[in-house]
Amino acid sequence: MNTLAKSSAPANAAGERELLITNLRLATARARLVVNSLETIGVSLRHRAVSTDAAMEWLAEEGLLNWLELGPTGAKP
Question: Does the predicted TM-score (pTM) go above 0.85?
Answer without folding.
Answer: no
